[in-house]
Design goal:
The chain is α+β, with helices and mostly antiparallel strands. The protein has two domains: 251 residues, no CATH class; 180 residues, Methyltransferase, Cobalt-precorrin-4 Transmethylase, Domain 2 (2-Layer Sandwich), CATH 3.30.950. Helices cover 53% and strands 11% of the residues. The N and C termini lie far apart (84 Å).
Length: 446
């Protein structure tokens, strides 16, 4: 029995159903391009993870918010605007999943009617995806590994080409993916047929090599069940993606936003420089970092030293490193040169030698007028108290577990640190309350 899928699926290749394919095309293009930078394949199935891949890990949403997004509150509002519609689509898709179409053609008709009934919500999602696509890679946050998982994402991923969805010959297959009719392995009906043939041959092997007979009604019934499950799952995980975007944006604004408040840090740096206040368990000053200037023979050791200082904050109350201020009294704001590359090196070093996540620290450029009247560019590295123990990978492959102690650090046993982190369920920048209190206690700047 042969099926002409392009003809059978024709109602889904017209709007509003087609819009779902265009939405997934946008997602796939961003995902495929980003994956191409995260992994290097050298002629085998085994891929090497790049520095960017290690930084992103399994959460494209977190990476985008902490490394790329220019306006997190606006992204949050945009996602929340379509979240309600996505919830309705998910509920309706799961209701359709519980139905029992009498055959394959009837299922296609039901899917087409679904899109007409919910064309407003579908159009809103498509417009949101187009807006995300105005920034390269941003649409990949609707397809994050942390939400979809490896298998579900892989089954819905195929190569996209063309400058627009309409120019891509694969668009029909992408539409089919959304509606559960196709995966990267082929058409769902053909997959179900193969399973039925294998089951039949195993239970009733034919000695003359003939293929077992497949009941058409059963084949279509099985295909409809699987297709509607995948269709409902698509909207379920799309809704979950939007919810995760909103939740992570809220966390970013609530926790990271204060740690990246330029105005607070400008005033705090001014306080540190003018008063000569002694360093405390929640902040350090550095004129520069040794690892930025060390010779190759000593650079690894300098990187470990830097990471231990950062990890000691994370394993205690959290804290901040102010870079570009002399520690000798009277203190001077001297700034940092080549700030962009310095910020990049901070992230790369922490990714390589620690398990700090992107939401565990905030590295920001702070511009402030120095005592000489010239504008200085400093760096503030704010580190959260983490819910789990942070170790530092030393050059010999072992791990150290530093803890902040007054203005220095001590190296502890992992179990000791873990014992007092048992009640820590998420990272926090609560130390910022002390920083803010110091700033607000100072006389207003002229």
């Amino acid at each position: 029995m042969e099926y002409d899928f392009d003809t059978l699926h024709a109602p889904l290749y017209e709007s509003p159903a087609r819009l779902m394919g265009e939405l997934h095309w946008i997602i796939l293009r961003a995902h495929n391009r980003l994956s191409g930078l995260m992994f290097i394949v050298n002629g085998t199935r085994l891929a090497t993870t790049t520095q960017l891949g290690r930084e992103i890990g399994r959460d494209e949403i977190r990476w985008w918010l902490h490394r790329k997004e220019k306006n997190v509150p606006f992204l949050r509002d945009m996602a929340e605007q379509v979240l309600g519609g996505a919830e309705k689509l998910k509920e309706a898709a799961f209701a359709l999943r519980r139905s029992s179409p009498s055959g394959y053609t009837e299922m296609i008709t039901a899917l087409s009617e679904f899109t007409k009934t919910h064309q407003i919500q579908i159009a809103e999602l498509a417009e949101f995806a187009k807006w995300l696509d105005t920034e390269e890679f941003r649409a990949s946050i609707l397809f994050a590994h942390a939400v979809w998982g490896s298998t579900r994402r892989s089954r819905r991923t195929i190569l996209v080409t063309g400058a627009t969805p309409g120019e891509d010959p694969a668009l029909r297959r992408i539409v089919d993916i959304v509606f559960g009719l196709y995966t990267k392995l082929g058409f769902t009906l053909d997959e179900e047929r193969s399973v039925m043939l294998a089951d039949a041959q195993e239970s009733r092997p034919l000695e003359d090599g003939r293929q077992p007979t497949i009941d058409r009604v059963e084949l279509e019934a099985r295909t409809c069940r699987q297709a509607l499950i995948d269709f409902a799952d698509y909207f379920g995980f799309l809704r979950d993606s939007l919810r995760d975007i909103v939740d992570q944006c809220d966390y970013f604004v609530r926790q990271i936003g204060l740690a990246r408040d330029d105005a607070i840090w400008v005033e705090f740096i001014r306080y540190v420089a003018q008063t000569g206040a002694a360093e405390s368990e929640i902040w350090d000053v550095k004129e520069t970092l040794e690892m930025w200037h060390a010779a190759s023979a000593t650079r690894d050791k300098a990187q470990v030293t830097f990471c231990e200082q950062v990890a000691s904050f994370a394993n205690h109350r959290g804290g901040a490193m102010l870079i570009g201020i002399t520690n000798e009294l009277p203190r001077r704001v001297v700034g940092v040169t080549d700030v962009e590359n310095r910020l990049r090196s901070l992230g790369e070093t922490l990714t390589t030698r620690t398990d700090l996540r992107l939401d565990h620290y905030a590295a920001s450029e702070i511009r402030i007028t120095g005592q000489d009247g010239n504008l200085k560019r400093c760096i503030v590295l704010a580190v959260a108290r983490t819910p789990h123990v942070i170790g530092v990978r030393r050059n010999d492959g072992t791990l150290s577990y530093p803890v902040r102690q007054q203005t220095g650090l001590r190296r502890a046993q992992r179990q000791e640190i873990a014992s007092w982190k048992k009640q820590d369920y998420e990272a926090d920048f609560d130390f910022m309350a002390d920083i803010t209190r110091i700033v607000r206690s100072q006389p207003a700047s002229p």
